[in-house]
């Protein structure tokens, strides 16, 4: 039985109750670790006080926003990582950086176990536990919420009975998880996939701008480095785009996705910066990547996204993909122009010093440098196999 546990602490109902529950039921000391990855609503002083009121021997907050942006979001952006082609992995991307600090804190404080507040239905239990085993296979992983059998109402009563300050009420509310890469909103009436998301759930994408404008995003080796000519760090680019792009009411996702545990789940997200950056980056690649490299990378991207979604950030296949993707980004440097208008973001231009677009080859005007006489032999050889098949085997089938 472990003696000291480091809990990934959010300050919400489940993790606050988990502190006291583990102390009383398991007889352990609990260190609470909250990781700041850009949550919009958290007051970290309140989070610390709540952890201590629940009985934690230590309450720690780590500011990991820049690390999250540069070491976790940037690689995913270079891979254009979108789970099931739509979701830019808002929650999934934050879990490995949280686990990294969870393990580091466990080592520093001499803990022999870590804990999380995930339920048995969600994806996050997989992400927390698999990542922990990849980084520290000797640490025990405890999942109190998955095993204690309390309903939401019972958890609230437990908190009241033990003097744990919480904000939760018995009424069913939305479940919101947010960080600098976006917001995930679920539960409530949205558990019906036919129900329209109520307007009150949106925060990042409330339309306040009505006049169209252009926005130019600069990239260096696949990483965004400027907005409208102003040089910014990765974190600052994301923050700027969340504000600017979101103000046009663009960046919402409403989908039914396949969870790792086999459940289909209706999810809504708002990710203005993430969607704008992925769209711009992919477009810049269209002029900077050679055709076969571009196509092979496109085949890799869905699998890369699945690895992140499935909790396999720290895995040999993910490392191998990173090496390939980093190599592909050597010449992905340039600028992309977006046109923003209410409810819309569209690419209207791209340029790069490494562009493979050759005007002389592409144009049909007098500057045309393409050798048209070469095409006759090329086309004949390209179609030779089909011509042979049609003559020997395919003529009757084509007529039928």
UniProtKB/TrEMBL annotation:
Main location: cytoplasm
GO biological process: argininosuccinate metabolic process; L-arginine biosynthetic process; urea cycle
Keyword Transport: no
Broadest EC class assigned to this enzyme: ligase
GO cellular component terms, A-Z: cytoplasm
Source superkingdom: Bacteria
SUPFAM superfamilies per UniProt: Adenine nucleotide alpha hydrolases-like, Argininosuccinate synthetase, C-terminal domain
Swiss-Prot/TrEMBL keywords: Amino-acid biosynthesis, Arginine biosynthesis, ATP-binding, Cytoplasm, Ligase, Nucleotide-binding
One term of GO molecular function: ATP binding
Residues involved in L-citrulline binding: 87, 123, 127, 175, 257, 269
EC code(s) of this entry: 6.3.4.5
Boundaries of every Arginosuccinate synthase C-terminal domain copy: 174-387
Positions of ATP binding: 8-16, 117
Positions of L-aspartate binding: 119, 123-124
Occurrences of domain Arginosuccinate synthase-like N-terminal (ranges): 4-165
Pathway(s) annotated for this protein in UniProt: Amino-acid biosynthesis; L-arginine biosynthesis; L-arginine from L-ornithine and carbamoyl phosphate: step 2/3
Keyword Membrane: no
Cell compartments where the protein resides: Cytoplasm
Swiss-Prot/TrEMBL catalytic activity: L-citrulline + L-aspartate + ATP = 2-(N(omega)-L-arginino)succinate + AMP + diphosphate + H(+)
Subunit structure: Homotetramer.
Entries under HAMAP family matching the protein: Arg_succ_synth_type1 (MF_00005)
Family: Belongs to the argininosuccinate synthase family. Type 1 subfamily.
Protein name from the UniProt record: Argininosuccinate synthase
Organism whose genome encodes this protein: Iamia majanohamensis
């Amino acid at each position: 039985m472990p003696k000291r546990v480091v809990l990934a602490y959010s300050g919400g109902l489940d993790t606050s109750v988990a502190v006291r529950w583990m102390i009383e039921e398991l007889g352990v000391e609990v260190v609470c670790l909250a990781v700041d990855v850009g949550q919009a609503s958290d007051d970290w002083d309140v989070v610390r006080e709540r952890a201590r009121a629940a009985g934690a021997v230590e309450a720690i907050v780590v500011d990991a926003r820049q690390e999250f942006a540069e070491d976790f979001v940037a690689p995913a952006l270079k891979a254009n990582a979108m789970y099931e082609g739509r979701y830019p992995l808002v929650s999934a991307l934050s879990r490995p950086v949280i686990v990294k600090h969870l393990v580091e804190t466990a080592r520093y404080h001499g803990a022999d176990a870590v804990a999380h507040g995930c339920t048995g239905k969600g994806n996050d239990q997989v992400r927390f536990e698999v990542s922990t085993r990849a980084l520290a296979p000797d640490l025990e992983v405890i999942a109190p919420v998955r095993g204690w059998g309390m309903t939401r109402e019972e958890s609230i009563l437990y908190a009241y009975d033990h003097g744990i300050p919480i904000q939760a009420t018995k009424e069913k509310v939305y479940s919101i998880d947010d960080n600098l890469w976006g917001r995930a909103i679920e539960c409530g009436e949205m558990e019906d996939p036919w129900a329209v998301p109520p307007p009150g759930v949106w925060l990042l994408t409330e339309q306040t701008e009505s006049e169209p404008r252009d926005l130019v995003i600069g990239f260096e080796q696949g990483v965004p480095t400027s907005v409208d000519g102003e040089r910014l760090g990765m974190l600052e680019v994301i923050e700027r785009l969340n504000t600017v792009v979101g103000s046009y009411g663009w960046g919402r996702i409403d989908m039914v996705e396949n969870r790792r545990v086999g459940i289909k789940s209706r999810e809504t997200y708002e990710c203005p910066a993430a969607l704008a950056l992925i769209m711009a980056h992919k477009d810049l690649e269209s002029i900077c990547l050679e055709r076969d490299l571009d196509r092979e990378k496109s085949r890799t991207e869905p699998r890369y996204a699945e690895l992140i979604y499935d909790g396999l950030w720290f895995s040999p296949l993910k490392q191998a993909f990173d090496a390939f993707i980093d190599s592909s980004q050597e010449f992905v440097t340039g600028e992309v122009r977006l046109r923003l208008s209410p409810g819309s973001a569209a690419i209207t231009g791209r340029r790069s010093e490494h562009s493979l677009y050759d005007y002389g080859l592409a144009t049909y005007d007098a500057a045309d440098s393409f050798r048209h006489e070469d095409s006759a032999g090329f086309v004949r050889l390209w179609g030779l196999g089909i011509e042979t098949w049609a003559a020997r085997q395919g003529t009757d089938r084509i007529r039928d």
